[in-house]
Write a structure and sequence with these properties.
By secondary structure, the chain is mostly helical. Helix content is 65%, strand content 8%.
Amino acid sequence: MPAEADASDVLIALFNSVGELHDTLERIYRPARLNKQKFIVLTALARQAPAPALATQLAEIAGVTRASMTTLLDALERSGWIERRRDARDRRAIQIHITDAGRALVDAAAAHFRDVCARLIQKTDTTQLARLARRCETLAKDARALSRCVPPFPAPAKA
């Protein structure tokens, strides 16, 4: 990157870095049939266990639609990592519970992920990492605000 990079150069470099990190993590965890959304859901369930969660809560945490969450929960249930149970007080509600196998998987994956992260950032100063984390949080917040006030880019006219 040039010494005097403009904002678009910096963001493109950031997008490329995040994309490469995402792709690398997907390749590492694919053999275990684990992806980002599954890991997020299992982690959320493990943190609040033994209390169950509702699909709508998990969809919000994972950043997916309710329809996508249904598909995701189907896959987690087929793998034996979660169970769906009717709420005893409200038979319309389905509670999502992590199984022992799901907890064992998320515990092992979380430990492995911490090791991968440590290896990834071992050459980076902790002060720089803290600053980067804060800046990323600010960028995410600013991006959400921007998406509410900037209209979509129009599709080009057909020739």
